[in-house]
Design a protein that fits this description.
By secondary structure, the protein is an alpha/beta fold. The chain folds into two domains: about 250 residues, no CATH class; about 50 residues, no CATH class. Helix content is about 20%, strand content about 40%. Strands 3, 4, 5, 7, 8, 10, 11, 13, 15, 17, 19 and 21 form a twelve-stranded mixed beta sheet that branches. β3 and β4 form a beta hairpin.
Amino acid sequence: MVLASSSTEPLLTAPGRLPDLGADWAMRLRDENRERFARAGLPAADDEAWRFTQLKALRNTPFTFDPDAVGPLAEGVPGLELPEFVLRNGRAISERISRDGFEVDSLAAWLRRSPGGLTSLLGTLADTARHRFAALNSAHLADGVVVRVSAKKRAEIRVVVSGPAALHAAYPRLLVIVEEGGQALLVEEHVGAEGLSCPVTEVHLGQGASLQHVRLDRSGDTAIHLGLVAVKQGRDSRYVSDVLALGARLSRLDLDVALAGEGAECVLNGIYLPAGKQHMDHHTRVHHESPHTTSRELYKGVLSGKSSAVFNGRIVIREGAMGVDAAQTNNNLLLSGEALVNTNPELEIFADDVKAQHGATIGQLEEEPLFYLRSRGLDEAAARRILIEAFAGEMIRKLGLEPLERYLHGELARRF
């Protein structure tokens, strides 16, 4: 048994307080990751992957995890009429959804019902050796949600992840499986958190499957949000990610996509809107494992006040992955002289006959278009708002979900 270090001990709950999962392999997964996180500890000051994101607030706050606590319940974006499943403080509180072509249920219930079935995919994508907070999530495995879309069926589902309360921790877990030829829309909303949330979402796409995955973080002003999304794509599958970051005083999302099957395609869209003293960190990693795979990535940030952001995007093209076409862009708009962004696009290419490019920009509102709009009778605030909308609106229009688009336009007006 590896003992927890002083930096990890406050975050590790005694094993005896965690529920029996009803499956030996799931219990081993939990125990192995408890030891892994205890060995790794929190990121050190010289950890390259964390050098722009300081975790002082995490080190200095005694967060409590109670597997029996229900936590606060916050509502998702109004008007989004989709079948809804709710996690509260990491625990499922909704009834099972079973319809033609898809089913959604509590992870704990699914484990009890079929301990060796689809849930055995749990933990196979989240690299807990590389993502220590995913290890912390797995060390607290108690419940979550499983979404399964049957072969050649279509489904739309909304998962609302609510809580935890201030000074509490939650470890939500999502397992998403879209079988061969299936098509799905998943809206994953993180709302109402005031404490520490370490969510992990694993996505398995079968041959020819497609998923639009909208992930919205609108945690509370005191929250710390440290999440991972890990995706594995089969042959000719398509994954579209829309990351919308609005909340938390400190947040980081790691998005790992493995294009494992030939002909697979991913499109990664993201927008982050930190204001005040918020800090938002996005690390993406697109791994082209097979030939003739395609990736497109566009992330935009609008920063105001004393806020800060990090974007680190890595494209890896494996040896033998011929015919790959990959592109990545990160654009940032600073509305304040005190706002700060660090952007770091990266390419690792081990194959010939590929196309790969990346680029990044950081700028402020230009005087010429501002002058033009003001010369047409608009005051400065209205002119600024139009230019901000033009910059960010491109990302909002990609969603194709009118209630969510209205909500985001409202957030732009409120914040900026």
